[in-house]
Design brief:
The chain is α+β, with helices and mostly antiparallel strands. It has nine helices and eight strands. Strands 1, 2, 3, 4, 5, 6, 7 and 8 form an eight-stranded mixed β-sheet that branches.
Length: about 270
């Protein structure tokens, strides 16, 4: 994805930057998951789609979807306007950050334990994780033909931060500006300070929170998620099996009858 200033709508040239909180909720382990399930890409596609839908269902005002980016959702919230004071806006954003993780884990466990299919995609849905990057800055609503998206330097910084030095697959990474603007008090949220460096944007100071405690080691980070016996029985019930079999069946028949094209993943690397 590129973010540039060559806009097709002349009104964009006169648009004023708006102060925003920018966020990307990204599925960790996506590339490995898709590569490992090349033979069942249809089912893998359904699993990823269902997890993305779970994130979207959690979104509430003031957060809005800017764009779906394959394995990620690009979100933003304006700092002013809309009849809601900033104090209320930031309170809602902070609450939603953690509800994304809770809902994602629950859905991944449901997909894995309700699956009647034994293919790798269905059997390993609970090995996927969620990470979020949050940045504060400004952006312009740019029109590109019929479409509108956010553009600007801070949008670039946000997406650069997805490629960082963290070993964990499950975290919330705040830039210092986002952490401050969201109103966290010293010691209120357990964070680890750090700095990420990029040749084109320089050093970016960050604060990292691990929603489920200390960062796990690399092996545990992608291990099957823990589940209690009550949830395991609930998700393996006939209701959940039928519920989660329906989207797979619809996708498979749509592919078979030519109503939908097989997902293409041309740039997936090989994994031994």
């Amino acid at each position: 994805m590129s973010y540039h200033g060559d806009m097709t709508d002349s009104s964009t040239a006169h648009a004023k930057p708006r102060e925003v909180i920018l966020m990307v909720a990204d599925i960790s382990g996506y590339t490995h998951f898709m590569v490992s399930n090349r033979d069942t890409l249809g089912h893998a596609h359904v699993v990823i789609s269902e997890l993305i839908k779970t994130i979207i269902r959690e979104i509430r005002i003031p957060l809005q979807v800017s764009k779906l980016e394959g394995d990620a959702v690009f979100l933003y919230a304006m700092k002013a306007g809309g009849g809601m004071p900033w104090e209320e806006r930031k309170k809602r954003i902070r609450g939603k950050l953690f509800s994304f993780f809770k809902a994602f884990r629950a859905r991944a466990l449901e997909l894995q334990h309700s699956g009647a299919c034994a293919c790798g995609a269905c059997a390993n849905a609970d090995r996927l994780r969620l990470k979020a990057v949050v940045h504060s800055g400004s952006a312009i609503r740019a029109k590109l033909g019929r479409y509108e998206e956010l553009t600007g330097v801070d949008v670039i910084v946000l997406h650069r931060l997805l490629k960082n030095s963290l070993k964990s697959h499950e975290y919330i990474l705040f830039t210092e500006g986002a952490y401050r603007d969201l109103g966290y008090l010293p010691g209120e949220l357990a964070v680890v300070d750090g700095t990420e460096h990029y040749d084109d944007v320089g050093d970016v100071k960050v604060k990292v929170n691990y929603p489920y405690g200390a960062p796990p080691d690399e092996a545990a980070d992608t291990a099957p998620l823990p589940i209690d016996e009550a949830d395991r029985k609930r998700y393996s019930s006939r209701f959940y099996r039928i519920k989660n079999m329906i989207p797979k069946m619809i996708t498979m028949y749509a592919l078979k009858w030519g109503l939908r094209k097989e997902p293409e993943y041309r740039n997936l690397p090989k994994i031994d």
